[in-house]
């Protein structure tokens, strides 16, 4: 099975990388997504024999991950523009600029106040960028329990930020990019 996987890797790596590079226009991102695809394929290697069109399957994963990346970049750019617009309303004071950098401190304070389980789920989701399924598997919890912990944690952190004077738009932006 390992030899088959190595053969598949050698067959597809260059083509997938080139395909992703054409979509994302970033060598770094193309390399990261290519690696992510092969990790997903390795995890699902025992089911790969059931896929009738492996070529189509692999390239569909590459396309979806590339488009997800581009959506995330576009959304972050839009939110950054909004954040700059909101910050410029407050003037150009040093205090306003300092506040922009203090938001991460507030997020960390809020996260520190979460229960240990919610804190762990939140960090795995935000810092490790794991999916609910991956977190559930790692923590041996149901996907629904992980989702509930995560949504509750996000709500608590957002409320904490707003209580501490962070505007709703900025709180949401920092929650999405934290």
TrEMBL record:
<feature type="domain" description="RNA polymerase sigma-70 region 2">
    <location>
        <begin position="8"/>
        <end position="72"/>
    </location>
</feature>
<dbReference type="GO" id="GO:0006352">
    <property type="term" value="P:DNA-templated transcription initiation"/>
</dbReference>
<keyword id="KW-0805">Transcription regulation</keyword>
<dbReference type="InterPro" id="IPR013324">
    <property type="entry name" value="RNA_pol_sigma_r3/r4-like"/>
</dbReference>
<protein>
    <submittedName>
        <fullName>RNA polymerase sigma-70 factor, ECF subfamily</fullName>
    </submittedName>
</protein>
<dbReference type="InterPro" id="IPR036388">
    <property type="entry name" value="WH-like_DNA-bd_sf"/>
</dbReference>
<dbReference type="InterPro" id="IPR014284">
    <property type="entry name" value="RNA_pol_sigma-70_dom"/>
</dbReference>
<dbReference type="InterPro" id="IPR014327">
    <property type="entry name" value="RNA_pol_sigma70_bacteroid"/>
</dbReference>
<dbReference type="GO" id="GO:0016987">
    <property type="term" value="F:sigma factor activity"/>
</dbReference>
<dbReference type="Pfam" id="PF08281">
    <property type="entry name" value="Sigma70_r4_2"/>
</dbReference>
<dbReference type="InterPro" id="IPR013325">
    <property type="entry name" value="RNA_pol_sigma_r2"/>
</dbReference>
<feature type="domain" description="RNA polymerase sigma factor 70 region 4 type 2">
    <location>
        <begin position="107"/>
        <end position="149"/>
    </location>
</feature>
<keyword id="KW-0731">Sigma factor</keyword>
<dbReference type="InterPro" id="IPR007627">
    <property type="entry name" value="RNA_pol_sigma70_r2"/>
</dbReference>
<dbReference type="InterPro" id="IPR039425">
    <property type="entry name" value="RNA_pol_sigma-70-like"/>
</dbReference>
<keyword id="KW-0804">Transcription</keyword>
<dbReference type="GO" id="GO:0003677">
    <property type="term" value="F:DNA binding"/>
</dbReference>
<dbReference type="Pfam" id="PF04542">
    <property type="entry name" value="Sigma70_r2"/>
</dbReference>
<comment type="similarity">
    <text>Belongs to the sigma-70 factor family. ECF subfamily.</text>
</comment>
<dbReference type="InterPro" id="IPR013249">
    <property type="entry name" value="RNA_pol_sigma70_r4_t2"/>
</dbReference>
